[in-house]
Amino acid sequence: MSGSRPTTLGELRASGWTSVPVRQELRRNATERIRSGRPLFDDVLGYHNTVIPQVENALLAGHDMIVLGERGQAKTRMIRGLVGLLDEWMPIIAASEINDDPYAPVSAQARALVAEHGDDTPIAWIHRDDRYGEKLATPDTSIADLIGEVDPIKVAEGRYLSDELTLHYGLVPRTNRGIFAINELPDLAERIQVGLLNVLEERDVQIRGYKVRLPLDVVLVASANPEDYTNRGRIITPLKDRFGAQVRTHYPLDAGTEIAIVEQEAYVGSGGAGDDDGDGRDPTGVAVTVPSFMTRIVVALTRAARSSSHVSQRSGVSVRLSISNTETMVANAVRRTLRAGSDHAVPRVTDLEALTSSTAGKVEIETLEEGREAEILERLVHSAVLSVFKDSVPPDLHRAVVDAFDEDLVVDVGDDVADTDYAGLLATVPALTAPVQALLADDEAAESPAMVASAVELVLEGLHLSKRLNKDAQGPRAQYRAR
Q1: Phi and psi dihedrals of 150, rounded to 5?
Q2: Does one domain contain both 228 and 95?
Q3: What's the pTM value of the predicted model, to 2 decimals?
Q4: Domain match, 343 and 221 both
């Protein structure tokens, strides 16, 4: 913060600074973003034509909002992103516990300071990040947590219970002149929800039996799962009525958007999320390259799960599944590469077997038969591999490869098969060259042995799943042969 900012109330008045309600502040800054064509949220993808307009309307209308959506739909990220629409710095009465407006203080402490010091009242400046409060609604959340309670220490120091200075303010008053968020609102006990009614309508709080009214300036934003919100009825009706806007989120509408989210969020050790120095090298010392078709397979798996009758759709299938599966696939490729003594890891179809651990905890399998979960997950993986193979390799390239296997050709694949062995296979089976090139057309480093190995495995597995080749699997190894 610049040292040239006013430090007393008198200097603040002389500077010409004006105080505006937080809703007006958000409306003004959102207007500037919309007019200039800048996005409200820099790192939220896939909502430009659907969710973002709803948020913009709520901001321009000055509404409190509730964001409804299944898990993994960037609800919390959007809510936290609203902080970027606040002014960077805001003045308060110095040492105020509830960010008192220097021109209109509401707490007894701040009013006393202004009455005593007048224009010499000290002013502090707080950053917009400190004007955001958040609480995860849990069954043990109390009114004291949100609104406030008597502080026994202050009473022990000699203050009377009737003295407003004995109060310890809760999270909502401490976010005065800012944004307060409640995540998973339906999990908040109904008697506690009642305590928010005044905040949303009368814009004040009342603590215990005190004759104290704190007219707060707070924008309240909540998140909820629509299953809880609509079916279980755990948000009391008067509270629903007080939210001015209900914003509905969704999973990515197309595979391209989900791929972009994975590339933005997943740690793959190649300049993506988690690569701190951006040098394209994993901390293990292994350079990682993820072929575009392998990312598409991971995303296709997630999208297949969202439409599967064997997967509970009530709980949703989060984008986090795509992210975690990508990271697990890369981790398995790095582990395989380290064992081989190489320094360039490229995920293959072989590495997809590792996705069971990262998939099982993120989907709820609905089956009446014990032990079928692994089989269902395997089918989802096969479905994803087959769909990407069919989309990437034209059918007219299949015949020559299948004909080559008709001549008693057998190909071994597995964790311990070297990248160079796959690359050498192209010389033995020239028919593989065309489908491999079709798969690697959009990738850099397409000529590297590791990239060629990944493409070869997908061609072989795709032909097997298309019932053009047989596959014999034994532990970590497998053989492809003619049918």
Answers
A1: -70, 135
A2: yes
A3: 0.85
A4: no
